[in-house]
Amino acid sequence: MVELKDVSVTYSSGVDALEHVNLKINDGDFAFVVGASGAGKSTLIKLLLKEIDATSGTVIVNGYQLGTLRKNKIPELRRTIGIVFQDFRLISSMTVYENIAFVLRVIDSPPKLIRKRVPYVMSLVGLQEKAHAYPHELSGGEMQRVAIARALVNDPKLIIADEPTGNIDPELSYEIVELLRTINMQGTTVLMVTHEHELVKRFGGRIINITDGQVVFDEIMEGTDYEI
Ligand code: ADP
To answer: Which sequence spans correspond to the domains of the chain?
Structure first.
């Protein structure tokens, strides 16, 4: 669950990146966050990961009150969140399997769990047969599916997808959003930042529009291809 209560962020340069934002994303929700470049979307993501702090207001993520969260608890918070980036951020010297397993290895997960969980998330994203491929042998859509599997492997409560379709062909973009929707239907909360209005229109659902640091629209819209 994500909750922002009257949150403002002012950078040291004096820029007000977010102003009096109130937002609640319940467990199990799927929401698109849309807005022009410079609107404050990245600031919102950084806030949720506690990469930056709110200048005022309260931020709660998956039960953690970020304003009072001690530094040594930040990794614990971040383990409840899976992140998918526009540029995939896969490790080029590692296979698909290793890219995903790596997340569990760094937190010292038992090898037995790794051997079970990694194939499972690979099958969720439909990439079992690519386990031994390297990132350069994959298409953009496949790379993003690896990144989604990697975000999922630690069973996070929340997935934040930051422009996940930004480097992918339009038809494959649709598949990526469908995959995120499927993951959401299995119980993971998904927050997808995008400026691809066409995609958002096709899927519909909850749409949060941030303009000049403010939430100017937050409603559930009917999609052209999907029923809510
Ligand atoms: P978006 O992700 O929607 O493009 P950002 O959250 O990156 O928007 O930026 C919101 C506003 O804050 C913009 O005016 C941007 O120039 C400013 N901004 C972003 N990061 C910083 C920073 N580290 N220092 C100062 N200003 C920043």
So the answer is: 1-80+157-228, 90-155
Residue 35 near ligand 1, beta carbon < 6 Å: yes
What is the residue-level pLDDT of the chain in tens, covering all 228 positions?
999 999 999 999 999 999 999 999 999 999 999 999 999 999 999 999 999 999 999 999 999 999 999 999 999 999 999 999 999 999 999 999 999 999 999 999 999 999 999 999 999 999 999 999 999 999 999 999 999 999 999 999 999 999 999 999 888 899 999 999 999 999 999 999 998 888 999 999 999 999 999 999 999 999 987 665
Q: Can you read off the two tokens belonging to residue 214?
A: 């403010």
Mutate to test the pocket of ligand 1, among 9, 12, 15 (most ligand atoms within 8 A of CB): 15
Please tell me the distance between residue 42's alpha carbon and the centre of ligand 1 in angstroms.
7
- Single pTM value for the model: 0.95
Burial of 8 (0-12, 13-18, 19+ CB in 10 A): middle
Q: Is residue 127 lining ligand 1, measured as CB closer than 6 Å?
A: no
Cβ neighbours around 78 below 10 Å, total: 18
Name the token pair of 94: 């590692």
Query: Is any atom of ligand 1 closer than 6 Å to the C-beta of 40?
Result: yes
Classify domain 1-80+157-228 by CATH architecture: 3-Layer(aba) Sandwich (3.40)
